[in-house]
Write a structure and sequence with these properties.
- It comes from Streptomonospora nanhaiensis.
- This is DUF3558 domain-containing protein.
- The chain is α+β, with helices and mostly antiparallel strands and 225 residues long.
- Helices cover 20% and strands 28% of the residues.
- It is built from 4 helices and 10 strands.
- The strands form 2 sheets. Strands 3, 4, 5, 6, 7, 8, 9 and 10 form an 8-stranded antiparallel sheet that branches. The protein has a two-stranded antiparallel ribbon with strand order 1-2.
- The chain is globular.
- It starts with a helix and ends with a helix.
């Protein structure tokens, strides 16, 4: 009798150990087949459960171009012409210094297929990267460029997530002009959607605001067209 009871206890203990091992393996991602690498640009985390559309953030107004939804700062001017959208900060009449551009079909419409082929290059900050865009030179566009370099972004893979769950290539450049002025350019590029959010020349006082606007972008309706 005592031998039978001991066998039952041994079997139960072995079964319990097996279950514990399986739970530990699952918790560590064993058997998932994943490589452990980060998500590719434009991979979506909302494929199973559609994300509810959030209300506009305080201080922003929702705007749209060709189905691309994005938040514009409330005190900024918004131009929606020619299939592109421009958000201009107070005091800026043109879509240049300090402005944010939203560009559908960006590479398709660009003669150099920018930024699809150039976004990861040191001189990939523009389709034709030859004119200074500093505050004092942007309007005249008569000063050349001496050089440019990419600046590290927060994500080590150079990706940024947007409101629809998609991830874009996020790039920042610091450009030096021939007169020793410098300026910064920012880009968020969705290669499959062929959409870009582009800060032509950064006004430093809006540095955080640029990131907030880009993060609010949703291209779901644009891609469904």
């Amino acid at each position: 009798m005592s031998g039978t009871s001991g066998s039952v206890r041994s079997s139960a203990a072995a079964a319990g150990a097996a279950v514990a091992a399986l739970v530990l393996l699952t918790a560590c991602g064993g058997g998932s087949g994943g490589s452990g690498g980060g998500p590719e640009p434009e991979s979506s985390y909302s494929a199973v459960v559609a994300a509810a559309e959030p209300p506009p953030a305080e201080g922003f107004t929702p705007v749209e171009v060709e189905g691309i939804k994005i938040n514009a700062p409330k005190n900024w001017s918004v131009d929606n012409t020619g299939g592109t959208l421009c958000m201009r900060p107070p005091g800026q009449d043109g879509c240049g210094y300090g402005a944010i551009q939203v560009l559908p079909h960006v590479a398709e419409n660009d003669p150099n297929k920018w930024p699809r082929k150039q976004y990861d290059a040191a001189n990939g900050w523009a389709s034709t990267p030859d004119k200074c865009r500093s505050l004092t030179t942007a309007a005249a566009a008569d000063v050349g460029v001496a050089g440019a370099e990419k600046v590290p972004v927060d994500d080590p893979q150079g990706l940024a997530q947007h409101a629809d769950g998609l991830k874009s290539h996020h790039r920042v450049w610091e450009v030096t002009c021939q007169n020793d002025d410098t300026f910064e350019v920012r880009l968020w590029f969705l290669p499959q959607s062929d959409v870009a959010v582009y800060v032509w020349s950064v006004d430093a006082q809006y540095s955080t605001l640029y990131d907030e606007v880009a993060a609010s972008m949703d291209v779901t309706a644009y891609n469904d067209r």
